[in-house]
Amino acid sequence: MLVVEGLTCRFGTKAAVDDASFSISPGGFVGVIGRSGAGKSTLLRMINRLAEPSEGRILFDGLDVTALRGKQLRQWRARSAMIFQQFNLVGRLDVLTNVLMGRLAEIPSWRSLTQLWPDEEKALAMSALEQFDMASLAAQRADQLSGGQQQRVAIARALVQEPDIILADEPIASLDPRNTRIVMDALLRINKHFGITVICNLHSLDLARTYCDRLIGMASGRVVFDGAPAMLTDHIARELYDLEANEVMGTAPTHASADSTIPAFGTAAAA
Ligand SMILES: Nc1ncnc2c1ncn2[C@@H]1O[C@H](COP(=O)(O)OP(=O)(O)OP(=O)(O)O)[C@@H](O)[C@H]1O
Ligand SMILES: [Mg+2]
Hints:
This protein is α/β, with parallel strands linked by helices. The chain is 35% helix and 23% strand. It contains ten helices and ten strands. It has helices at 40-47, 70-79, 95-100, 109-114, 119-131, 147-160, 177-194, 205-211, 234-241, 245-248; strands at residues 2-11, 14-24, 29-33, 55-60, 63-64, 80-84, 165-169, 197-201, 214-219, 222-227. It is globular. Residues 40-41, 169-170, 201 line the site of magnesium ion.
């Protein structure tokens, strides 16, 4: 269970996140919504400890995440994998090596420096790529892939970290509608098939309603809505988004699928 208590992040006198409190049970798919500047990215970055909280606490299964330093902090960052809008792959490296980067916390550094990855690590990375239909592109340079393919590699890299939580900060913001659906389905699969909690910042309310089982609405740094998508009335949505409301309440893909017929992660390539 992730517990956020009175979490605040100030930049100068301005509170980017202001006294946020909520708990997230394991296995949820939570959408964080709100207009630009509402504090969504800052909230996710604090949970991963990329941004320092000014006040408040983050607890995970009783562990005080806010107090972690050094090696324990690095371990927490591996357990709470971030996915970014701009994918953050190493473009000149091949796809498989990019996925293996997700294993850095688990293997001795000399191995990563010499690129002598153990076979079982490679098998794990291939298995993760297979989950998202990307195994055939393992040897390609990452910068030769489409945006949707790059984001699936980033999701595979997050998966091999074997995280408890995936924190996705507008993962589809630079993708077309088709790739948006492929990437959101990949996140849904991670959530439903592997039981990994997903917290996903989304600008599109329609997507948030389609994919998430809970929405946290932010405005001016504060949590102003927390509940099931069905509880978010158009009236509340308009308050949340103000002038942007018409833009974000457009049409999104109507179907969300979590295919459970594909073999479990880690078993396919290793077998
Ligand atoms: N490093 C920083 N230094 C100063 N101010 C910041 C910093 N990061 C964020 N802010 C401010 O904090 C507020 C919240 O920003 P944040 O990026 O969390 O919003 P957001 O909801 O993710 O917006 P968007 O939808 O545009 O991504 C904004 O007013 C922003 O300008
Ligand atoms: Mg943001």
